[in-house]
Amino acid sequence: FSTSYSDSGLFGVYAVAKPADAPALASALLAETSALAQGVSAEELFRGKLAVKHSLLYALDNRTTLLNSIGAQLALGSGVAVQSPQQGAEAVEKVTAADLQRVAQKLLKTPLSVAASGDLSKLPRYDQLQAQVKA
Hints:
Largest sheet: 2 strands, antiparallel
Distance between the termini: 19 Å
Helix content: 40-55%
Mean pLDDT: 85
Order of helices and strands: EEHHHHHH
Strand order of the largest sheet: 1-2
Low-confidence stretches: none
Shape: globular
Number of strands: 2
């Protein structure tokens, strides 16, 4: 997921697991996230763009989603005109594998944030999780 604010943003991944599976899940999530910094294949880039474009264009079929998108864009106050879902899809098409790699490398240089609830007895400690992040 990603959340944008007027002066910053948040990129994250969330998942649910049984307590016994928490260590493996955490390792897999961190490995996949770290792998983005090493680059993506043409197939992965194509599939990712397709998923994002479908999500954007879905807003055309759902008034609530479309209005939420417009409201979020206005709330950010970026000074940029509100983009239609079609314009967003066109912007996604311009994203390159090098762009993804550059952004992933930048994100992975920042400290990891972790939020968890439930039985955390098997979840690795923060320092153990942070040690698995590879920019």
